[in-house]
Amino acid sequence: MSKFKKKKDGGVPAVNTAALPDIVFMLLFFFMVATVMRQNTLMIENNLPFADQVEKLDKKDLVMYIYAGKPSQNYKQFGTEAKIQLNDKFADVNEIAAFISAERASKREELVPFLTTALKVDKDANMGLIGDIKQELRKVNALKINYTTKKGSVFGRD
Fold first, then answer.
1. DSSP string, 3-58
2. Could you tell me the domains of the chain?
3. pTM for this model (two decimals)
4. How far, in Å, CA of 115 to CA of 91, rounded?
5. What is 91-109 written as a DSSP string?
6. Per-residue pLDDT tens for 76-134?
7. Where on the phi/psi map is residue 138: left (φ > 0), alpha (ψ -120 to 50), or beta?
8. Theoretical Cys-Cys bridge with 144: which of 37, 88, 116, 157, CB 3.0 to 4.6 Å?
């Protein structure tokens, strides 16, 4: 008579890794699409004024933003007077030239003539501060200026 042999346990079957690269690329693509790039943290109150004739800027990567207004609730220790914000810090008017130069240096040389300076100014900001900003922009030959507004009636009723 023949002997019965026990079937040897083959162990755990191998994991199929053929689909692993597809899964990795799907996750990579998902996070590339779903991620929002961080903008500047606003340290000022920025209630933009209204305008009835508004145009959108085509290339937002060629825009340098200068914010002006009173410090927000979290930054009241800096005072109640209108301040200028360049990127993520408060600045004086005389620091605008260095800011513009740094922004120009960070762009490719052929794009520099197309750079636009956008002023995001609070509707209650002092016009003297805006005039000082414009004077500094003239000194560094940043003559393409955009005033950022909200679309609506000039009188703010819409």
1. PPPPPPP--SPPPP-TTHHHHHHHHHHHHHHH-----PPP-B---PPEESS----S
2. 50-151 (3.30.420.270)
3. 0.73
4. 21
5. E-GGGHHHHHHHHHHHS-G
6. 898 888 999 998 899 999 999 999 999 999 999 999 999 999 999 999 999 999 999 99
7. alpha
8. 116
